[in-house]
């Protein structure tokens, strides 16, 4: 567990998720999908590509996915 906490900043992730949820509230996204980063990366551009906050929301999705992937990779090395 020590490896994960060193590489995974829970506070930073919480802030990212919180900001993302606030942005998604302004967009055409089913609430059911708010926590599905893979779905958001595929589908966010379809109905929200012209939204003024689209670029920031998409960037947050990429950052969240990257951090989760790093944490999972660190777990698999144990």
What does this protein structure show overall?
It is a single chain. Helices cover 72% and strands 0% of the residues. The chain is mostly helical. The protein has one domain (2-76). The protein is elongated and about 40 Å long. The termini are close together. The model has no long low-confidence stretch (mean pLDDT 89).
Could you state the order of secondary-structure elements as H and E?
HHHH
What is the share of helical residues? Answer: over 70%
Whole-Å distance between the termini?
9 Å
Gyration radius, to the nearest Å? Answer: 14 Å
What sort of overall outline do the alpha carbons produce when their principal axes are compared? Answer: elongated
* Total strands: 0
Ranges with pLDDT <50 over ≥5 residues? none
The largest sheet is: none
Classify the secondary structure makeup into a structural class: mainly alpha
Number of helices, where a helix is a run of at least 4 consecutive DSSP H or I residues: 4
Mean pLDDT: 89
Q: Proportion of β residues?
A: under 5%
Number of domains: 1
């Amino acid at each position: 567990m020590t490896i994960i906490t060193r590489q995974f900043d829970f506070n930073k992730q919480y802030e990212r998720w919180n900001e993302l949820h606030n942005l998604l509230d302004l967009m055409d996204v089913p609430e059911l999908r708010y926590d599905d980063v893979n779905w958001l990366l595929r589908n966010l551009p379809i109905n929200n590509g012209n939204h003024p906050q689209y670029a920031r929301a998409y960037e947050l999705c990429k950052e969240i996915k990257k951090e989760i992937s790093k944490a999972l990779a660190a777990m698999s090395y144990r």
